[in-house]
Amino acid sequence: MTLHHWPLQERPRERLLKYGPQQLSDTELLAIILRSGTRGLTVLELAGALLAHFSSLRGVISASSHELCALPGIGKARYCELQAAMEICRRQLAEPLYKRSVFHCAEDAKFYLRAELRDLKQEVFGVLMLDSQHQLIMFRKLFSGTINAAAVYPREIVRQVIADHAAAIILVHNHPSGNPTPSEADIRLTRDIKHAMALVDVEVLDHFIVADNQVCSLAQQGLM
Predict the structure, then answer these.
(1) pTM for this model (two decimals)
(2) What does the DSSP assignment read for 164-197?
(3) How many other β-carbons are positioned within 10 Å of the β-carbon of residue 124?
(4) Cβ distance 60 to 81 under 8 Å?
(5) Phi and psi torsions of 211, nearest 5°
(6) Where does the MPN domain lie (predicted)?
(7) Tens digit of each residue's pLDDT (9 = 90 or more) over 170-210
(8) Terminus of the chain with fewer CB atoms < 10 Å: N or C?
(9) Contacts of 193 (CB under 8 A, 6+ apart)
């Protein structure tokens, strides 16, 4: 039986329109994005198979193109649709940071950074470029490395800060291990970058470490 043979009121789109997206299951929400099934599977069955394979919605969204496209019924077009949906979420989370001081919407900043970095399988180092009102100009991912290390060059950060006309910055990187505790190398690097930024009169306000659902602030821990 195809989805078209289901009672109208039980189809995901109709249920969303009637009850709202909050009332839909993960399978139903994913089915709406996928739009159609494949040979032998309704779209709900396909969505359920993906969730079973990757264990969760987060697992599906963060899967690589190679991982997703290796499964029956998922090609590059559907991979692009899933990535586009996730990018819309990321950009929506960033919007408050462009309108208010990052420190007046600290939780919004953390939600945004978690969405950007928590599912990456390698360490990535980035910078929140801020204007004189501490509003977001741009989030730059500047360096990436192996699963637990990224080579970071302060001179490259200085060059990009000047190009973006930033008045202040917040450093950000992820720990794919899931442990948010700053290492000695993290602390030394933060102080080296602070010194480099002082030469161009740009303040380093904080250094956030994203590890799964946690965000650690070096400034709050007195490690700046």
Answers:
(1) 0.73
(2) HT-SEEEEEEE-TTS--PPPHHHHHHHHHHHHHH
(3) 19
(4) no
(5) -140, 105
(6) 102-224
(7) 999 999 989 999 999 999 999 999 999 999 999 999 999 99
(8) N
(9) 152, 154, 157, 171, 204
